[in-house]
Design brief:
The chain is α+β, with helices and mostly antiparallel strands and about 100 residues long. The protein is built from 3 helices and 6 strands.
């Protein structure tokens, strides 16, 4: 299965973007998470829940994740079966249909 060339296109079409995660803590439940932008220096993009780091984005997927974060779109991030699933928030979809 190939990864989408442009994750923003997938999001704007209403499709979720799924990114495999590295170093997911054992026993971590599915549910909402937040992402931490690494800033200007090369660093790991981390996944958090309630202020606690629970996983990391693999380096090979940093570009796709940074593209989504830097887009300015209203995104929601969820952990599902050890993967990050990002979707466009419903309010963003409503705002793009006008």
């Amino acid at each position: 299965m190939s990864k989408p060339a442009n994750p923003l296109n997938e999001l704007l079409r209403g499709r979720p973007v799924t990114i495999p995660l590295a170093r997911v803590g054992p026993g971590t439940a599915d549910g909402s998470v937040t992402l931490t932008h690494p800033g200007k220096k090369p660093a790991t993009i981390t996944v958090h829940r309630d202020g606690t780091r629970i996983a990391a984005i693999p380096a090979a997927r940093h570009h796709a994740v940074l593209t989504m974060i830097d887009s300015g779109l209203d995104l929601t991030h969820h952990l599902e079966a050890g993967q990050l699933v990002t979707t466009l928030a419903t309010t963003s979809l409503e705002n793009t249909e006008g």
